[in-house]
Amino acid sequence: MNFLNSGEGYKLFMETVFQKTYVDKTVMIDTLYRYAMCGYNYICVTRPRRFGKTVTANMIAAFFDESTKEESKRLFETCKLGTLKNEQEKIFAADPEGIDARKLCWPVQGKLKVIRINMIDHIDNKVNSCNDFVLKIKTKLIDDLRKTYPDLLISEQYSLSDLLQQTGDSFVFVIDEWDAIFELPFMSAEDKEKYLLFLRALLKDKPYVHFAYMTGILPITSNTRGSLLNMFREFSAFHDSQFYPFFGLTRDEIQELMLREGFMQPSMEELTSWYDGYVREHDGEHMFNPASVSRSLLDGKCKSYWTETGPFYEVRDIIRHNVQALRKDVIRMAGGETLDIQLSGFSAGKEISSDKDEILSAMVAYGLLNYFDGHLRIPNHELMLKFKSALYSKELGLNQTPEDSRHLLSATLEQKDREVASMIEELHTEKLPFFEYRNEDSLACVVTMGYLAALDDYRITREDKAGKGTADFTFEPRNGSYIPIILELKINHSAKNALTCIREKNYISRFREYPKVLLVGINYSERTKKHTCKTELVAPGEVLQ
């Protein structure tokens, strides 16, 4: 079977359950079924790729699929969902027709016909148009119906919807990666609408739909013609009041996993720096990227596991839509800043335009940025490295090279003050001439670009709270071989004044546990158009006494 009661969901989910880094999210099935049986039986959950959408889709298909009833029952009885089984069966036995009984998932475990389609699995080199793709899906599903219902009247005059209705049965539709086809180069705006119409004709207001669960990356609320899939209740990275606990990993879940399996490396602190940073809209809980956490625990080290799996996964490809509007914001975020901004969201069916709001919203949908409570930021070190790579791209009009940045960092650590000042001046006047120094923020952007190479070895924080105020930049080493740095900026003062500010406001207390801290003051004079730098290596233990 291709889609109907194929058993594939069970097979794939069982493989996941026995993986060493599996985290049990099976209670979602209870939440989902109760929600669906309250009249909201069209549900779409959208998240960035690698946040567990496919695992969840397989889990749902495995639980309800009648073709794997017994093996599925044994599997789920060992999971967290299994703790609800006895209680639900008692409620159902007392009043099988009651309102509460109809919302329980265990009484229907393994008793429903499931149509599971992972759209991305059916995109290959034979699919050269939207028509090819839709025909492929239709043909395979009709083939399943022919095998399951030999007496079904199949002819060209009957649509796929007609055939499903002829069966007299109801189905659970699990559609994974519903929007995967939108990434293909042949998909025009007309093709996208045609595809949406196909899904609408298949699912909307059909008596054979017991419930439909759909996953994707892009939200569907706004599309090319308003609301073609308006029967779906959407739960996106922007808004989710129901299913937010079941995607991504929390700190507590990771610590429980590490304790259960005996993972010692990487440390929780390292995992937090590399993969934390996504914040749930509903409760403010931090989420970690589950795919990256899983691989790093198995490898015993943190590194970037982010892969570009589509045309909008390269940061620079999205920025290209409006380099002039985005360049400064991206540099500010690369420097550790959080932008205060109101985003309206981005959805399937749209083309990324030159509109700044749409571009940043698309970056949130693809998981490149995190947006929470009006604040936009690069979520973690893994993604920061992707932005760093994009900022070295000459296509963005930025002429800084990795070698330039490493040279500046080395000169700073070696306290070559004049050389540091000269390199920052060259960076501003020759390589980033579009930055006008209106205030310290503009100077901070130039400094951010200058020290991009430091992201490899430091956690750089812009406007870091320390002592009696907020330091312009702090550089916290990722390992013990580097000295922490506190960098303060001034305009129309002096580099010496910047160092005095660091001392007087007690910023050094930020790194009190380190034997040495490098203080860096940088000043720009509007009168002379010159930069100056002054550094000082101090021992926090002596200074703070």
Structure description:
It is a single chain. This protein has 20 helices and 15 strands. It has helices spanning 8-17, 28-36, 53-64, 69-77, 85-94, 130-148, 160-166, 189-203, 251-261, 268-275, 290-299, 315-319, 323-334, 356-365, 381-391, 402-413, 417-431, 440-450, 495-504, 540-543, and strands at residues 42-46, 113-118, 171-176, 209-216, 233-235, 278-279, 286-287, 339-340, 370-372, 375-377, 458-466, 469-477, 485-491, 517-525, 530-538. It has 545 residues and is of the alpha/beta class. It is elongated and about 90 Å long. The model is unreliable at 222-226 (pLDDT under 50). It folds into four domains: 8-245, Rossmann fold; 248-299; 315-396; 402-543, no CATH class. It starts with 7 loop residues before the first helix and ends with a helix.
Structure summarized in a few sentences:
This protein has 545 residues and is α/β, with parallel strands linked by helices.
What's the SSE blueprint?
Layout: H1 8-17, H2 28-36, E1 42-46, H3 53-64, H4 69-77, H5 85-94, E2 113-118, H6 130-148, H7 160-166, E3 171-176, H8 189-203, E4 209-216, E5 233-235, H9 251-261, H10 268-275, E6 278-279, E7 286-287, H11 290-299, H12 315-319, H13 323-334, E8 339-340, H14 356-365, E9 370-372, E10 375-377, H15 381-391, H16 402-413, H17 417-431, H18 440-450, E11 458-466, E12 469-477, E13 485-491, H19 495-504, E14 517-525, E15 530-538, H20 540-543
Parallel strand pairs: 1-4, 1-5, 2-3, 3-4, 13-14
Antiparallel strand pairs: 6-7, 8-10, 9-10, 11-12, 12-13, 14-15
Helix pairs in contact: 1-3, 13-18, 16-17
